[in-house]
Structures are given as structure tokens and as C-alpha cells.
Amino acid sequence: MKKRIVFATGNAGKVKEIRMILADLGMEVVSMKEAGIQIDIVEDGKTYEENAMIKARAVAQYTDDIVMADDSGLEVDAMNKEPGIFSARFMGEDTSYRIKNGEIIRRLEGVADEDRTARFVCAIAAVLPDKRELTTRATIEGRIGYEEKGENGFGYDPIFYVPEFGKTTAELSEEEKNQVSHRGKALELMKKELMKYEDTYR
Ligand code: ITT
User: Is there a contact between 48 and 137 (Cβ–Cβ < 8 Å)?
Assistant: First the structure.
């Protein structure tokens, strides 16, 4: 029987993007909650890859489906690459992104355009039904803007300006963002990896 993909994330913004990016695999993609797996996972890794694998392994204990997880973050060069792996926890997990984004803009007051460089990083981890493990990583380079712009996406998207588009990732359509984003590119790499292991899930 064809396996489905259980995605080990509780972030609704991620789930929406991931579903769209993985659609052409022709496999059912469900969130851990939709799969009936409700567990608290302590993300105590030191890298995006470690944290992604911690999440994927935790959920893989409860299913023989393919499990994938995403660990991602925003690195602001003028803030010593913070918040980085602590992006969700920056200023507290429950603090609104209006406040978090406002704080980053405030910390960059007086910083010139060329020094406002930043990147989104995404690591994807997968645990296959035979418990083999895979990871991929990708980034998108941009700059921190001077105000929030755009309504699409989630999290830090309204302050992440992509020079090639002349827009923030919150002003891009879903399709546009997925084509160039850290998550889009890391998942495309994961799809290629998965093809090599087709025997273990079809
Ligand atoms: P899960 O662990 O349940 O997947 P999370 O939101 O806690 O959800 P992370 O630990 O990977 O996920 O934190 C990533 C944070 O980085 C996320 O909450 C956003 O603040 C930020 N982030 C990552 N990708 C982003 C994107 O595409 N657009 C805007 N912000 C993003």
C-alpha cells in the first residue's frame, strides 16, 4: 500500500506551504495532529538539521508512514545571525509577529541597506518506513525592510525583502514564494532524495 507523509509540525503556515510543494508527489500529506499524534517535542538540538531530526524521530515512533519535519529560522547578519534556530522562541513563543518584527526593525535602526542582509534557512528531515534517515537544507537570501509589508505567508515574512522581486515574501503569491523559498528548495531536494528510496515506501 502506498504510504502517506506525516509532517511533524504544529505550524499552520508551514503546513499550507508544504502541502502545495509536495502536491506533485501524489501522496497524501497530513499534519501530525491530523494523524492523531499529539506530543510535545523538546527541540534541544544545536543546528536546524538536529532539531528537524528530533521532531521527525519523535513522530516516527508512532507511525510507519514517511515522517518529515521542518526546522527553520531567520538569520539577521546585523544581529549576529540571530534569532536563527531560536526564531520561534524569539521574545517568547506567544509574542505576536507584529511585535517581533517591530523589534527587529528597531534593532536595525541606522543600519544601511547593504548591511541589512538576512536569510531564511530551512532543514528538512525525513524518517522512512524502514527508519532510514535523510536531511536536506536550503536558504533564501534577502534584506530586512524598514516596515512590515504584505499579508501573505507567516512569521517574519512581512519584513523579509527579496531584492530580485522588489517585494517581501509576504507580498509574494504562495506559488512565487514556494519557488524561491528556503522551504520550497529544501523540500525539492528532499523529493529527489526520496525518489532514490522508492522501494522502501511504495
Ligand atoms: P514546528 O516546530 O512545529 O514545525 P515552529 O514554528 O516552532 O513549528 P521552528 O522551530 O522551525 O518551527 O521555527 C521556525 C520559525 O522561523 C517560525 O516560527 C517563524 O518564526 C520563522 N520562519 C521560518 N520559516 C519562515 C517563513 O517561511 N516565513 C516567515 N517566518 C519563517
Answer: yes
Measure 85 CA to ligand 1 centroid, in angstroms. 9
pTM of the complete model: 0.97
| Residue keyed to cell 517574519 | 156
Are 83 and 133 in contact by the 8 Å Cβ rule? The answer is no
Is 71 annotated in the active site? yes
Range 5-201 classified under CATH 3.90.950.10: yes
Cβ–Cβ < 8 Å for 109, 149: no
**Cβ partners under 8 Å of residue 34, min gap 6:** none
**The residue type at 193:** E
Q: Which residue is closest in CA terms to ligand 1's atom 17?
A: 88
Residue identifier of the C-alpha nearest atom 13 of ligand 1: 88
- Grid coordinates belonging to 130: 524502514
Query: Ligand 1: distance of its center to the CA of 88 in Å?
Result: 6
> What is the spatial distance between Cα 37 and Cα 85, in angstroms, rounded to a whole number?
24
**Which of the following is catalytic: 65, 70, 71, 157?**
71
List, for residues 96-152, the tens digit of each pLDDT value. Answer: 999 999 999 999 999 999 999 999 999 999 999 999 999 999 999 999 999 999 999
